[in-house]
């Protein structure tokens, strides 16, 4: 009986996860190393990868700062009533329930060229939708809960005693944060960063709607994969996908490592 | 005194900034989409939703998501159980691999399925010869949904299995209960909250899935066009009203699910 269950588990993993991964590796080597390099060194590939990199860095930076602060407020703040805190807490998860396409649509509806805010920005020469700011906004929206949800439980677990002790002894709030709170939440934050990087790198639906997917301008790595498939350029799609998949696996390993450290 | 005053202003500034950011980024867009679809009254909303292509796409999404969730509940419970209870070679590697669909871009997931099951592939050929088609038909959509939501049930069931007191299970055995009976009367009730909340999350994610599905679905209106792809199409053809109307159908459904999951989890925490 036990053997049967283990075999079945292996089977599911092999069929659902391992074979597809191998297929991507194998697919991008269909024309050898040269085909792979050629697909990757197309100007649009380089541009798309660079675009994805920019978005990942910006989004991770902004979300880490605001996510950690919001988590601290939602757990510790005395200036918010428990009811309000509970309400805000339930709002944090909303982006999980929103389809990425809808997330992108929201931004187009609010900031698109035909809207009040959008045309205001447009007149001052600052494009939001179909440009980088809109794509960053869309990704921020989609990845927002990740950091908050990683840090909040850690804060709840450690309790506020140590922090209170530190501030009673006269430490300033920054000092308390760096010396008391930060060491405790550090691994949670790192785990949250890895999750945010993975999610913002892989974001597709929201970015596709907001960016308009203009080649060499607003195309990211994932939307390039989509376009290559639509154009029946499977080898090129494979090569870009392989780069993304490799980074994902590296991130997965990082995740495991952070999870282990977090557990201690 | 001066220092204290300054730090109070600082913290006030920080608080306002963070809360403002939160409201503007998360709450405003959601209010925006609801107002947009009702901006010119109930009538246009109703006509967008009652378009057969629109409601068919929503129905199709719900139906396929139910199937994908059912599959995930079954294999997820099994894998969660095996990974916690049995010690075998490769267990920790498999356990880390569970999160792969979360880490992998969904478009890459869709491409994988397309390559493996597509028209010129080995599996695609066999299925074609047997007379049924996978890619660009419903099975491919279900597979894409299962792939993307694979970790949810497993990750929800695992902590409950770990917490579970083994003595209850052993007591049931000693009193002569069969393995099957022990499972249904002792183990299943203990892990049921995890199965339900994991399944609900998987369901809501399947409803929302776009990247993996758009590449394999074929997107034939009324047949294999799911709601998120329909919304994308409406945006592309410059019909924000139609897109927003279908969006709120989908959103309201997802919010309902999220609320149920929260209710289950807070009831468990309250126990």
Description:
The mean pLDDT of chain A is 86. Chain A is an all-alpha fold. In chain A, helix 12 (221-230) packs antiparallel against helix 13 (234-263). Chain A has helices at residues 2-28, 32-40, 43-76, 82-92, 94-97, 100-111, 116-123, 132-158, 161-168, 173-202, 205-211, 221-230, 234-263. Helices cover 82% and strands 0% of the residues of chain A. Chain A has one domain (15-263): MetI-like fold, CATH 1.10.3720.10. Chain A contains 13 helices and no strands. Chain B has 271 residues and is mostly helical. Chain B is 82% helix and 0% strand. The mean pLDDT of chain B is 85. Chains A and B meet through helix 1, helix 3, helix 4, helix 5 and helix 6 of A and helix 1, helix 3, helix 4, helix 5 and helix 6 of B.
Key structural traits:
heterodimer, A: 264 residues, mainly alpha, MetI-like fold, 13 helices, B: 271 residues, 82% helix, 0% strand, globular
Assembly level:
heterodimer
Outline the low-pLDDT stretches of chain A.
none
Tally of strands of chain B = 0
Sheet having the most strands of chain A:
none
Question: Helix count of chain B, per DSSP?
Answer: 13
Find the count of extended strands of chain A (DSSP E, 2+ residues): 0
The chain pair with the largest interface is:
A-B, 82 and 78 residues
Number of helices of chain A: 13
* String of helices and strands of chain A: HHHHHHHHHHHHH
How much helical structure, as a percent, in the residues of chain A? Answer: over 70%
CATH architecture grouping of chain A: Orthogonal Bundle
Low-confidence stretches of chain B: none
Radius of gyration based on Cα positions of chain B: 23 Å
The general outline of chain B is globular
Task: Give the CATH H-level superfamily of chain A.
Answer: MetI-like
Task: Give the N-to-C terminal Cα separation of chain A.
Answer: 35 Å
> In one word, what is the shape of chain A?
globular
| Percent helix range of chain B | over 70%
Q: Estimate the mean pLDDT confidence of chain B.
A: 85
User: How many domain modules of chain A?
Assistant: 1
């Amino acid at each position: 009986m036990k053997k049967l269950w283990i075999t079945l588990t292996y089977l599911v993993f092999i069929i659902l996860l391992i074979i597809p991964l191998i297929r991507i590796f194998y697919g991008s080597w269909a024309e050898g190393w040269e085909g792979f390099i050629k697909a990757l060194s197309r100007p649009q590939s380089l541009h798309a990868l660079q675009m994805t990199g920019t978005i990942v860095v910006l989004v991770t930076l902004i979300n880490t700062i605001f996510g950690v602060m919001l988590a601290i407020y939602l757990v510790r703040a005395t200036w918010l009533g428990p009811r309000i805190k509970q309400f805000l807490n339930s709002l944090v998860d909303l982006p999980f329930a929103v389809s990425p396409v809808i997330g992108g649509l929201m931004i187009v509806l609010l900031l698109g060229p035909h809207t009040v805010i959008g045309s205001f920005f447009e007149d001052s020469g600052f494009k939001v939708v179909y440009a980088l700011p809109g794509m960053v906004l869309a990704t921020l929206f989609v990845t927002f809960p990740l950091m908050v949800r990683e840090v909040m439980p850690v804060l709840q677990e450690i309790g506020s005693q140590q922090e209170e002790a530190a501030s009673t002894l006269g430490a300033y709030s920054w000092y308390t944060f760096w010396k008391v709170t930060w060491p405790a939440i550090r691994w949670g934050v790192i785990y949250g960063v890895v999750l945010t990087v993975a999610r913002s790198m892989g974001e597709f639906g929201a970015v596709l709607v907001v960016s308009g997917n203009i080649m060499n301008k607003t195309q990211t790595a994932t939307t390039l994969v989509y376009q290559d498939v639509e154009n029946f350029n499977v080898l090129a799609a494979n090569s870009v996908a392989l780069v993304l998949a490799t980074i994902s696996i590296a991130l997965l390993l990082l995740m495991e490592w952070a999870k282990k450290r977090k557990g201690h | 005194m001066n220092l204290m005053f300054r730090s109070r202003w600082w913290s006030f500034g920080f608080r306002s900034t963070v809360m403002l950011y939160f409201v503007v980024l998360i709450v405003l867009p959601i209010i925006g989409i609801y107002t947009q679809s009702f901006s010119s009254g109930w009538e246009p909303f109703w006509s967008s939703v009652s378009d057969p292509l629109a409601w068919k796409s929503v129905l199709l999404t719900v139906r396929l998501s139910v199937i994908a969730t059912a599959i995930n509940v079954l294999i997820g419970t099994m894998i969660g159980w095996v990974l916690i209870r049995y010690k075998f070679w490769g267990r920790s590697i498999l356990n880390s691999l569970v999160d792969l669909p979360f880490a992998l871009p969904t478009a890459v997931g869709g491409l994988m399925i397309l390559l493996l099951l597509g028209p010129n592939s080995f599996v695609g050929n066999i299925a074609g010869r047997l007379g049924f088609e996978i890619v660009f038909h419903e099975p491919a959509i279900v597979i894409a949904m299962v792939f993307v939501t694979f970790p949810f049930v497993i990750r929800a069931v695992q902590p409950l299995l770990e917490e579970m007191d083994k003595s209850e299970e052993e007591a049931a055995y000693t009193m002569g209960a069969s393995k099957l009976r022990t499972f249904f009367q002792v183990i299943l009730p203990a892990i049921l909250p995890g199965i339900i909340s994991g399944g609900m999350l998987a369901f809501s994610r399947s409803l929302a899935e776009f990247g993996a599905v758009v590449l394999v679905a074929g997107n034939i209106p009324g047949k294999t066009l799911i709601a998120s792809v329909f919304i994308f199409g409406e945006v592309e053809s410059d019909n924000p009203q139609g897109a927003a109307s279908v969006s709120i159908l989908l959103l309201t459904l997802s919010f309902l699910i999220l609320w149920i999951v929260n209710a289950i989890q807070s009831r468990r925490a309250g126990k």
